[in-house]
From TrEMBL:
Span of domain ABC transporter: 4-238
Source organism: Sphingomonas turrisvirgatae
Gene3D superfamilies (alphabetical): P-loop containing nucleotide triphosphate hydrolases
Record's protein name: ABC transporter
Residues making up the signal peptide according to the UniProt record: none
Amino acid sequence: MVMLVTRNLSVMLGHRRILDGIDLDFAPGALIGVVGPNGAGKSTLVRALTGLIAYSGSIALDGCEASTIARRERARATAYLPQGQTLHWPLTVDRLVQLGRLPHLGPLSRIVDVDRAAIERAMVRADVLTLRDRIATELSGGERARAMLARALAVEAPILIADEPLAALDPLHQFEVMELLAAEAAAGRTVIAVLHDLAMAARYCSRIVMIEHGRVVADDRPVAVLGSQRLAAVYGIRAEMDWRGDVPRLALLGRLQDPG
Ligand SMILES: Nc1ncnc2c1ncn2[C@@H]1O[C@H](COP(=O)(O)OP(=O)(O)OP(=O)(O)O)[C@@H](O)[C@H]1O
């Protein structure tokens, strides 16, 4: 099980400081929602965590500075589902999901039984088995998003980072993907998901990290982070949390200036 830790993590893009002094500990077995307004720095944070952009400060995987870990080893440790993925090649879904096994393949790049099994598991979990022979560039946005999720799941990495995994999904598949992410966490993985849907975050995440202007402004259980006052201050919206049994339900009621 892999522990992911950032200390004083900062990112400059152009001349702007986009992330500023982020200290976060990500332990296995948790589904952590990263939330915050547009432009807050959420994607920048997860891109730094996956090694895609330069940073200052430290990102450690099990105590080892991430930038010193070989690329393939790091790719085996951290699966990444990027935001709004564009596909450039007309691959079948089956071939696309196979790409998730690349960090595991030997010098001949041959898929072996253990890879085939991981690919099948990923396709079942992302509900794309019936799409396996379709050309991925010809899928609908939601179908393609699920195929890309299957590719990330096929890595079977201890850390899964998903940037807006619900975008483009219909409501049923949104629930299914959140159930799936929660199940991945329950199985002992560290799952970090950038989410705009605060109600889904409240319902499924074990912990919420809220980012505003490149800083962590809250980091706690959903009920502690997604209170009415904070959502008013950070998002400018009115919202109320209530409970159905022990499941928190967050209702978004409108803008602060709206009547009622
Ligand atoms: N290459 C770049 N050069 C300069 N600024 C950038 C660059 N890429 C992103 N930014 C800026 O960094 C800030 C944070 O962007 P980021 O994509 O991390 O935000 P986000 O919280 O994921 O937003 P959203 O919810 O809109 O996806 C934004 O103000 C964005 O304009």
